[in-house]
Amino acid sequence: MHGITTETAKKIGIREAVVATAFYDLLHKADLVVAHNEKFDRQIIRIMFSRLKRGWVFDKPACDTMEISAPIVDLPPTPRMVRAGINKPKAPKLEECIEHFFGEKLEGAHDALVDVRACARLFFHLKSSGAAV
């Protein structure tokens, strides 16, 4: 999805402990965590923290732009959702939100910096419209 292979990560990536420490320090400076599909990201971070065995927790309040956007973007449920008896709007991808709210294509999606900028733009749009805290 993002084009980073295990080989590339091992060759030029940053060790997980370094990334976790930096993230942990930034996390404790933040009042709010903003993410698109925040529950997924929170679980990944919790797993990373647990591997380090330092007792770190990820307990900050969060704003999930995907959850807030879902009823506004109002995409039809997928056939799989319908088969499972779920009759609510499909969770929109970040690209779908950018298209809906700004009428633009998200070029370079799944690149971390592109996604962070798009998520921030979406969050501030949702906040200014009163949909987000």
From TrEMBL:
<dbReference type="GO" id="GO:0004527">
    <property type="term" value="F:exonuclease activity"/>
</dbReference>
<keyword id="KW-0269">Exonuclease</keyword>
<keyword id="KW-0540">Nuclease</keyword>
<dbReference type="Pfam" id="PF00929">
    <property type="entry name" value="RNase_T"/>
</dbReference>
<dbReference type="InterPro" id="IPR012337">
    <property type="entry name" value="RNaseH-like_sf"/>
</dbReference>
<dbReference type="InterPro" id="IPR013520">
    <property type="entry name" value="Ribonucl_H"/>
</dbReference>
<keyword id="KW-0378">Hydrolase</keyword>
<protein>
    <submittedName>
        <fullName>3'-5' exonuclease</fullName>
    </submittedName>
</protein>
<dbReference type="InterPro" id="IPR036397">
    <property type="entry name" value="RNaseH_sf"/>
</dbReference>
<feature type="domain" description="Exonuclease">
    <location>
        <begin position="1"/>
        <end position="123"/>
    </location>
</feature>
